[in-house]
Q: What sequence folds into this?
């Protein structure tokens, strides 16, 4: 009897594959077969088969299915296996990085996460870095701050860029550059031609701002308090892209991180209003986990961003937007109040 139990224990995970564990990790992350399938570039039935085969080998369910399988939750066994799955892929990633060091110090892979707001600046950094290190491969992931921090902890990401680190913070966060925040309107807006907008006029306007918890919303609320203004006409908008489109459509005055409107400023579509007390400034942060050392490739990228990030933004995002806004044609010349310099 003892020998039989021992034999079953040894055979329990004997035939488990990395493909099955990747599918399990993705489904556990999304709690949805369809979303996991899109992440893995597979079909939902193919992912479902991988999970069923894994459950058959373990002999216990990993997920509770609710509502004919449309809703999922991890079982106790699933929660237990998920922790070990993270360790497996983290260890494999470390091994791959270590091996690549011996093969070629300039080879390897880097996984970089970025919050939605950071997608306007991270490609600039990676493009310049890739020109210096063409053999390095960079995998880019966009997600919320708390999810990025979780992926740093599990080893799925090496670095992450965001404007507001999550709380509680379980990572090293290094500030590497400042960004300006201000008010923007469409070039056709009546205020676009104003050299300056008195703060006393602001309560009459309708504003488009991000939801509570975002960096720009915190700055907007702080601006109200410091200016002793009650800006009651506020519409909450779920993303910077929607704020930009709504402002372009004439639905109000947007308040956001001005690094997100570089293209619209260069083409003269959006103008930055000159308002006393603006631009406000925030900081970009580079996050990494304290749980493991960075690979040489990831450390090289970290040093590059810390040392050159501010200068790259000043040269390719801030100043071009200001200079070209005045030369982009008739649509841009109305932005007489839009030449607001960003703080360094």
A:
């Amino acid at each position: 009897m003892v020998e039989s139990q021992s034999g079953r224990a040894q055979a329990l995970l004997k035939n488990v594959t990395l493909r099955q564990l990747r599918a399990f990790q993705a489904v556990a992350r999304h709690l949805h077969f369809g979303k996991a399938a899109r992440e893995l570039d597979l079909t939902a039935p193919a992912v479902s088969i991988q999970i069923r085969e894994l459950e058959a080998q373990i002999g216990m369910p990993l997920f509770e299915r609710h509502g004919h399988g449309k809703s999922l939750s991890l079982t106790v066994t699933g929660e237990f296996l998920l922790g070990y799955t993270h360790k497996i892929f983290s260890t494999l990633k470390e091994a791959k990085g270590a091996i690549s060091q011996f093969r070629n110090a300039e080879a390897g892979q880097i996984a970089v996460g970025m919050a939605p707001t950071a997608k306007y600046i991270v490609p600039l950094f990676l493009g310049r870095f890739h020109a210096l290190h063409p053999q390095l491969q960079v995998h880019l992931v966009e997600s919320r701050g708390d999810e990025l921090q979780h992926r740093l902890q599990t080893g799925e990401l090496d670095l992450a860029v965001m404007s507001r680190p999550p709380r509680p913070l379980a990572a090293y966060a290094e500030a590497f550059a400042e960004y300006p925040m201000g008010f923007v309107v469409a070039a056709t807006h009546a205020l676009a031609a104003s050299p300056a907008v008195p703060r006393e006029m602001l309560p009459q306007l309708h504003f488009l701002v991000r939801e509570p918890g975002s960096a720009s919303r915190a700055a907007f609320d702080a601006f109200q308090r410091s200016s002793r203004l009650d800006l009651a006409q506020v519409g909450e908008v779920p993303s910077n892209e929607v704020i930009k489109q709504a402002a372009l459509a004439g639905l109000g005055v947007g308040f956001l991180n001005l690094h997100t409107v570089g293209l619209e400023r260069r083409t003269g579509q959006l103008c930055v209003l000159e308002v006393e007390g603006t631009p406000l400034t925030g900081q970009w942060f580079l996050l990494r986990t304290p749980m493991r050392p960075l690979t040489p490739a990831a450390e090289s990228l970290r040093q590059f961003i810390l040392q050159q990030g501010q200068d790259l933004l000043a040269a390719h995002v801030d100043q071009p937007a200001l200079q070209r806004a005045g030369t982009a044609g008739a649509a841009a010349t109305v932005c007489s109040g839009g030449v607001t310099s960003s703080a360094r």
Q: What stands out?
A: The chain has three domains: 2-82, 109-176+285-315, 177-282+317-333.
